[in-house]
Design brief:
295 residues; alpha+beta; Double-stranded beta-helix; 3-stranded antiparallel beta sheet; 7 helices
Length: 295
């Protein structure tokens, strides 16, 4: 089996010629991972995966990590986080509004996500695109002086959206339970990450959970982060994709930002959205094995 690829508008790649309903040959999975790491975003449309096949596919990208928002996880799988506008008994079954701002998945934990893998289960009439921003090219385009300034900086991250801390806002982070609030911690990540597979540099987490820079007064840190955030989401770095039923996709959280579209609560099947999402950390097992076998 040979995969076919087609560039998405802006950045990222669409992959076809793949049947995810069955285990993939190692050579095919290796090529998918190569495309993924080089381009930062892949979509594989029109798939029919069982629950177990989706679970197995995500493990090809790294080690599954149960999400911090434990009250919104899939009832039968602790690593699956529902992304949905469906309500049951007056409560959302998944993340409803809490991702409609530019952010990097789970940058507020250590270790952070390395990849996010999703699968479309329900799709609303009229669509519901997810927006992505290429942080590799955004870094490449910075002036040399700015690169020299930021290359060795360390950023304070914690849960939330720096640009909107109003819990009732549709562009704030998902509201936490009291127990979850007690578990929020400060972590630190480089402002510029070198990709562990490609070696390419990218801006990391300049929107969303970044709340300070080590060794820098808060006002200066916020000004710098805001300047970088404005640069990072320029139209030339942004693409969008609308995950329909059966569409699989993955984004590299070391090299992208993304945000969801705000939806109204579903009133029936025609306006319902449901994406399964699994976060993974570390390198794909295939790459770990290759490195372990190298002399």
């Amino acid at each position: 089996m040979r995969i076919s690829t087609k560039p998405l508008p802006g950045f990222g790649m669409e992959i076809t010629g793949v049947d995810l309903s069955e285990p993939l040959e190692p050579e095919v999975m290796g090529e998918i991972l190569r495309v993924f790491h080089v381009h930062g975003l892949i979509v594989i449309p029109g798939q029919e995966m069982t629950f177990d096949r989706y679970d197995a596919l995500t493990k090809e990208f790294g080690a599954q990590k149960p999400h911090f928002l434990d009250h919104l996880r899939h009832e039968n799988h602790p690593a699956i986080l529902n992304l949905s506008n469906i309500f049951e008994d007056g409560r959302p079954i998944g993340v409803y509004e809490g991702a409609a701002f530019w952010h990097t998945d789970v940058a507020y934990q250590d270790p952070p996500n390395s990849s996010t893998v999703v699968y479309g289960r329900q799709w609303p009439d009229g669509g519901c695109p997810t927006y992505f921003a290429d942080q590799m090219t955004a870094y490449d385009d910075l002036p040399v002086k700015m690169k020299d300034t930021i290359d060795n900086l360390s950023v304070l991250h914690h849960y939330g959206n720096r640009a909107d801390m109003n819990e009732e806002s549709s562009t704030s982070a998902e509201k936490l339970t009291l127990d979850q609030k007690d578990r929020v911690e400060n972590v630190y990540h480089p402002l510029v990450k070198r990709h562990p597979v490609t070696g390419r540099k990218a801006l990391y987490g300049v929107c969303g959970s970044s709340f300070g820079i080590v060794g820098m007064p808060d006002d200066e840190a916020f000004d710098l982060l805001d300047e970088l955030a404005a640069h990072a989401i320029k139209p030339e770095y942004v693409t969008e994709y609308d995950f329909r039923v059966g569409d699989a996709g993955a984004w590299d959280t070391f090299s992208t930002l993304h945000k969801a579209t705000v939806l109204q609560p579903a009133t029936g099947s025609r306006d319902s959205r449901l994406l399964w999402r699994i976060s993974v950390t570390g390198l794909p097992p295939m790459i770990e094995r290759e490195r372990a076998a190298s002399p």
